[in-house]
Amino acid sequence: MSFAADDLAGEERDARVGVAQTRWLAGWEIASICISVLIAQWAIYPFVGDNRFLLISLGLAFAYIILSHRVWGESLRDLGWRRDNFPVAARLLALPMLLLTAALIVTGWFFGSLRAPRAPEWFIIIWLPLWGLIQQAILQSFVNRRAQAAFGRGWPSILVTAAVFGLLHMPNPWLTLATFIAGLVWAAIYQRAPNLFALALSHALMTAALVTTAPSFLLGGLRVGIRYLHWSPFWPVS
Amino acid sequence: MKQEAQSPRLRVSASAPSLPLPARQRARLTNLLIAKSFIEILLVLGLAIGFYLNAFSPYFRGTLDEADATRVAGWALNHADPATRVEMQLYLNGRFIASRIADQPRPDLVRAGVARDERYGFVFELPPLPPGEYEARVYAAHASGAGLRRTLQQIGSAQSFSVTAENNR
């Protein structure tokens, strides 16, 4: 009996160690992807000034994310590449998007910066949703899921996900704040109804709302990283 | 194994990552993270070294031979492009004074085997300076980063000199 009890205690200890190590690994993975993006934003551009080198850093991050999903045994459905819960996710997103858009319109009216979009149609219809999908795929299916593994479901992992999203938009202060707030909403909804397509569409619509309402000096040219430091609110936005 | 959480209000399943990962998967992730970190360290190191060598070309050679109240002189050449004469800028106490092309004759360079022709010298004739202590530095001005930058690369060491009422013309 004593040997069985010892075996059981050992198994429980191993399980606790395994859980702790898994949590640490998940946190390390989040940090590692953040570092890849920060290298692209803060090191490659000032050293080289050539966007082709961004492919090295970001490509490495993408490759790691794909390998990580495989190691964790995550299916596309797990990650949110699914259609069945699109209506549910869209309904959850509707109210927050309406409120945020209303806030942006009021801000734009106050500063007199309401304007029609100037980008070509292909940019609005194709690129914005695609770029939103890429960002949400990384933010939710990787960062959010790893945050859940490290900190558990609910507000701890939602806050971590939103904080990461805001961090990667620094040092643009208003964009950091906007992405943190939006990150809270998207992370919370992803944990209730994981659907990357709905989130991508929401991302695209909110980006369009932002660039057509917020004044230029708040937007900072939507620049992040060291490029933001090269931007001046007193120069004409090019 | 996946955890399927059912929200009673929404009736939507939301799968969360399962814990713990088996030891073999944990080891594999650890190896991947370490490998990724090494690659990124090498990338940043390569970028830093490449940037430095591009901005501060190792092929510039020269010295600041003399600096006094009346003139500053020396020589400079770019071994990567010896046919092109180097643009030199003189700074006194951190302030820009003048710009010259280093194309003055210096036969001693040929005798010493430093260069194949002698026209790599520069001479700055100084304007009258107020009495005081001065530090002269000369820089080779050149483009780098495919023209994105212009670099001032110091040639030789700084030289100090004094200006008095006697030696000032």
Q: How many beta-strand runs of chain B? A: 10
The end-to-end distance of chain B, rounded to whole angstroms, is 91 Å
The protein's oligomeric status is heterodimer
Structural class of chain B: alpha+beta
Mean pLDDT of chain B: 87
Shape of chain A: globular
Helix and strand composition category of chain A: mainly alpha
Q: What's the total number of strands of chain A?
A: 0
Mean pLDDT across all amino acids of chain A? 88
Radius of gyration of chain B: 30 Å
Low-confidence stretches of chain A: 234-238
Distance between the termini of chain A: 78 Å
Q: In DSSP terms, counting alpha (H) and pi (I) runs of 4 or more, how many helices of chain B?
A: 2
Contiguous runs where pLDDT drops below 50 for at least 5 residues of chain B:
1-13
Helix fraction of chain B, binned, reads 10-25%
- Cα shape of chain B: elongated
How large is the count of helical segments of chain A?
A: 10
Strand content of chain A: under 5%
Summarize the structure.
The complex is a heterodimer of chains A (238) and B (169). Chain A is mostly helical.
Kindly describe this structure.
The complex is a heterodimer of chains A (238) and B (169). Chain A has helices spanning 2-48, 54-71, 76-79, 86-111, 121-151, 155-167, 173-192, 196-213, 216-219, 226-229. In chain A, helix 1 (2-48) packs antiparallel against helix 2 and helix 5 (121-151) crosses helix 6. Chain A has 238 residues and is mainly α. Chain A is built from 10 helices and no strands. Chain B is of the alpha+beta class and 169 residues long. Helices cover 22% and strands 44% of the residues of chain B. The interface between A and B is large, with 44 and 33 residues.
